[in-house]
Amino acid sequence: MSKGSFGHIVPLFAGYALPKEVAGRLHEWSNVHLAPLGVRVIPAENLHITTLFFGEVEDRIANWLKRVVNAYAPELIEVRSTGLRMVGRGAIAVLLDRTAPSIDTSEPPASFEPSSYVEVMRQPLEGLLTIDPASIPREERVVLLWRAAMLCCPTRGRRGHGHFHVTVARCRDKPSGLSDIKYPNLAFGLTDFHLYESELGPGGSLYSILATARG
Q1: E strand or H helix that includes residue 68
Q2: Please, are residues 1 and 57 in contact by the beta-carbon 8 Å criterion?
Q3: Are 107 and 160 in contact (CB under 8 A)?
Q4: In the predicted model, is pLDDT for residue 153 greater than 50?
């Protein structure tokens, strides 16, 4: 299984890195509006959108996921901010909605019927790992990632369904005054898609890129 720098098993996930300018603006906004509430603001370089979660996987699965992500060519996804709220356990997130129709990496739109979809989505894990990403049309290779996430982590694997979020700060309990803060007005495109590993260090989660979509 994939081990981080602290020597323990680390979970893997896939998603989009924010454009540097957007990440910088969002981090600056968080320092101004959220830091005074006593929360821990996430560093700009750690801001991302998770679309698929794989959890802790064996090395052979991690290596296959790297091959798939390297072979994938993501389409441009345009998003805009729509809100600010607590998400999950102790995460403060800016909510995002897709504004441009495209094939996203969490859920296929109703009109998306790739030739590979039915065949891939019926595969068990062992069968999935035998599929060469190059055997599937470039724009359809995300189907392999959908199926892997569903098999590796059935309850958390697929995120989004056209709605995303960026965790900008963390806290133990919902801070007083959060509901009064107006979310930042953002609109931007996403193209940088990666496979990440997440490791919990002394100062919080550390994210490392294992593979990048190149097509």
Answers
A1: helix 59-71
A2: yes
A3: yes
A4: yes
